Every structure is written in structure tokens, then in C-alpha cells.
Amino acid sequence: MIFLILNVVIHNFRINCGKDINKINYEETFSEKNNIDEEIEINIGKEKEKLNWYIEISVISLKAPIQESVNMEVLNEFVGHFEETSKTAGNIGLAGHNRGYKNNYFENLNKLKIGDEIKYKYNEFEGIYYVEKIEIIKSTNWSYLEKSPNNRITLITCIENKPDLRLCIQAIQK
User: Closest Cα partner for 72 from 148, 4, 11?
Assistant: First the structure.
């Protein structure tokens, strides 16, 4: 069942990521895109829940809010969390746009190097991870999002003009 749900979510991400995007909003500045409040309000029914959920990668000047799901509505505003992955332990899977949208949080992900630090915060949980793998994977290879016995974070984004490929960054918590 989890495999079926993961395939549906990934298929939706793959379809949206493969679109040819030619219009980029150049009016936003880099600092405006990354200037976020640490508390994010998410509507849940009639109530609002305040989450302190974000990713921070100082070497590429990134601080981005995270929200559940990798559908287009979420990815247009946030870094998306693959729902079938963990939020605190094991393998945390995140996806984000890198060009052509209002918020291209992963636009400099390709500049990361082995050993670079990634900070992740989900409410009271805080983790620091160090880049261990930088891979180009096929859009159908979702093995990098599978459960893991060690704590890791997996970041996935599209590759320009290559709809069948993805950039995958994996970092290990030490």
C-alpha cells in the first residue's frame, strides 16, 4: 500500500517537474525568497497549527519553509515533504523547485559539495546533516527515499531540460 501511495505521489511530482518552464519571475530578489518567518501557519480544518518546520543550508544561503506533500500547490510555496518518509528519524525526503516558479528554493542545490552542512528543524526536533552523496538519478528511481536504519535527509529536484533525470542529494546525521 505504501509503495502504491509513494508511486502516485512520485508520479505527480514527475509530471510537474518535467514541464518546460520558460518564464522566471526575476522581480523577486534572492533575499526576499529566503526571508521567512521561522513559524509557519498551516490551515488544518478551521484551526491553525503553528509549525516550526524548515531546512537551512548556509553555504548556498538557503532557509526555506517545509510543508507536507510534493504536489504543485505545495511546491509553489514551500519545500515539499514526501509524505511516506519520516519527519524526524530515518530517511527524511524533501523536494523543491529549482527554476521557473515563484519559489525556487532548490535553485542552488547543484552547488553543494560532499561534507556541506544541512540543518533541518521540525517543531522541537533539530538535526544537522552532512552531504554524503550527490547523484544524478532517473526519475523512476525512488530507492533513495526508502526507509533507512540511519538518520539521513534526501533532497530531490529536477534537472533542466532533462525530464527523465533528477538531482539527488543525501546527507547523513552525525
Answer: 11
Q: For residue 114, what are the contacts with CB-CB under 8 A and spacing of at least 6?
A: 131, 132, 134
Cell numbers describing residue 29: 530578489
Model confidence, pTM? 0.76
pLDDT per residue as tens digits for the range 88-124? 999 999 999 999 999 999 999 999 999 999 999 999 9
Residue 15's H or E segment, with its range, is helix 2-17
For residue 26, the tally of other CB atoms under 10 A from its CB is: 6
Where are the chain's structural domains?
2-173
Please report where in the chains the cell 510543508 appears, as a residue: 67
**How many CB atoms sit inside 10 A of residue 4's CB?**
8
Distance CA 39, CA 86 (A): 20
- Domain 2-173: which CATH class? mainly beta
C-alpha cell at 113: 559539495
